[in-house]
Amino acid sequence: MSTPAAILDLALERVVNNSAIGLQAIIINIDSENFVALGGSKDWGKKIYYP
């Protein structure tokens, strides 16, 4: 589970669990196309951009 996608998903999971403000910062800084290009799962993109 040390792939970039797994690390990114874990980091996002921690942000979601720890801080709504942190989640807002991720939404502002990463658009959905770039998120998937960086290795994020499409499920995470849906959770973040289409709650």
- Radius of gyration over all CA atoms, rounded: 10 Å
Number of strands: 0
Count of DSSP helices? 4
Main sheet record: none
Average per-residue pLDDT, rounded, comes to 59
Q: In total, how many domains does the architecture comprise?
A: 1
Helices and strands, in N-to-C order?
A: HHHH
The fraction of residues assigned to DSSP E strands is under 5%
User: What is the 3D form?
Assistant: globular
Low-confidence stretches: none
Termini, distance in Å?
A: 26 Å
Structural classification: mainly alpha
Instruction: Kindly state the percentage of residues in helix.
Output: over 70%
Structure description:
The protein is mostly helical and 51 residues long. Helix content is 76%, strand content 0%. It contains 4 helices and no strands.
Question: What are its keywords?
Answer:
single chain, 51 residues, 0% strand
Concise overview:
This protein has 51 residues and is mostly helical. It has helices at 4-18, 20-29, 32-37, 42-49.
